[in-house]
Amino acid sequence: MTAGRSGEETGSRSGPEADGGSAHGFGNAYGSGNDGENSSGENGHGENGSGDGPAIAGSPAPGARRPGGRTARVREQVLGAVGPLLVEHGFDGLTVDAGAARSGVHRATVDRRWRDGGGLLADVLDAAGDDGWRPADTGSLEGDLRALNEEVQEALTEEPSVALALIAASFRSEEAARALRRFWEERYARCEAVVGRAVERGELSPPVDARRLVVSATAPLYHQRGLLHSEPDPGLPAEAARTAALAARAGAFS
Fold it and tell me: Which helix (H) or strand (E) holds 107?
């Protein structure tokens, strides 16, 4: 549910930005663009990062020396290199040496802070969880679920899909797997607003398990792309949202 630029442009413009949400998207662990700032001394070669991959949007991890300035820029450069390395070379190619070379940050800095590929992946996911994403408020339960599904579909169908690469790589690192679970738990918690709004509108009667509802709505897209590797079905986001909304109104998630 994790990368790329999902949620920036859903076909109906009903994504989270329609009501002040983030461009990250529900299933997107990667932001859009690199600020291009130099690491100001942490970079062993005095060069900027490669700039050929999306940068992570988010605050520094707890325990970072400073929330801004050079430390934050170095973190952004290094994490911005993770996605391109992952889709080009897989988890085995995501090493401290590769991260340093791709970002232009000194190897000793990367090794000291992230240690290995699992540490890099975990920090990417933790940074993604610090974004301002919120589920779209389209005015209906089905519309909100469709907006979620459109974000997921975009993240899973872009080429290359960093979202799928992150999910696959999490099976190779327990540290990354724990970070991925944290990312999803936070996303599910934010989606409680979808159920709350539906209850306020009289579409649903409490109690409703928001997590089960969202999993039901989004699961067909992950099955199609993540398991079957099928060509994307343009109608699936709306169809899956409609089915989940009908089930919710019938009390399936109470």
Answer: helix 107-114
